[in-house]
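Friendly challenge for the regulars: who can give me the C-alpha cells for this chain first? No prize, just bragging rights.
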Amino acid sequence: MINEILIDLHTESEVLDALVAPLDDWSVPTPAPGWTIAHQISHLHWTDRIAGLAARDPEAFAEELERATPDMVDEGAREPVTLEQWRAGRNELADALRAVPEGRKVPWFGPPMSPASMATARLMETWAHGQDVADALGVTREPTNRLKHVAHIAVRAFGYAFMVNGLPVPEVPVRVELLGPEGDLWTWGPADAEDRITGPALDFCLLATRRRHRDDLAVTAVGDHAEAWLPIAQAFAGPPGPGREKGQP
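First reply, four minutes later:
Bragging rights claimed.
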C-alpha cells in the first residue's frame, strides 16, 4: 500500500514540478496572503524534510518538536530552496517512509501516523499548494483519481474539524458520495445515513483544502450535521485559515 501511495505522491509532485520548473521568477504572488510561488515550494520542501526526519530518526524529531514555535510553518516557507533541493527532498522522504519498520508509526506534530498516512498527507498538501501555484499562473489542472487521497483525509477528519473549531462532534454518521473525475462514485459512511454530502470530488477537495469558497462549488449537504460540517471541513491539521473569498480563484 505504501508504495502505491508514494507513486501517487511522486506523480502529484511531478505535476507541480512541471509548473514551476520553467519559471525564471518564483516571486509571483499566490492567493495565499503574503506567499509567493517560492514560499509554496519552500514550505513543501521544509515539511518534506521534517517528515523525513521523523521517519528516519524519531529522537531527533522529538528534539525538533521541542524547539517548535507557532511561527515555524511560516518560517519554513521563508527558507530559500532551489528546484534541485526540493526534488532531492521529495526523494529522500519517499526513501525514509519506505524504510520505516512494519508496525511502527511516524511521530508528528499531531498524533503519530503510519507511513501510508504520512504519504497521503504529503500528497494532499502537495495538491493543495499546487492549486495555489496553478491559480497564480492562471493554469487549470486536470483532476485525477489521486483526489481520492485528499477526499479520504477530509472525511477521516470529520470529528477533528468540529473539535478544532470548538464545536461538539456529532454522534450521527454522515454519508459522503463524490463523483470521481472518471465518472465512478466514491463513498464513505453508511448508505442509510440521513445526513449526506454529495458533489464532484474536485469540488469537495477544493472545499476541504480551503482553495475555493463553498458558494463557488457544487457540493451539497442534506441534514443538520452535514450542513454544519461543510463550512468547517478541512483536510489538514491545525487551526483553519480564512480560506478564499466568494468568487476568488
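The CA atoms of residues 82 and 125 lie 19 Å apart. The chain has ten helices and four strands. Your move, everyone else.
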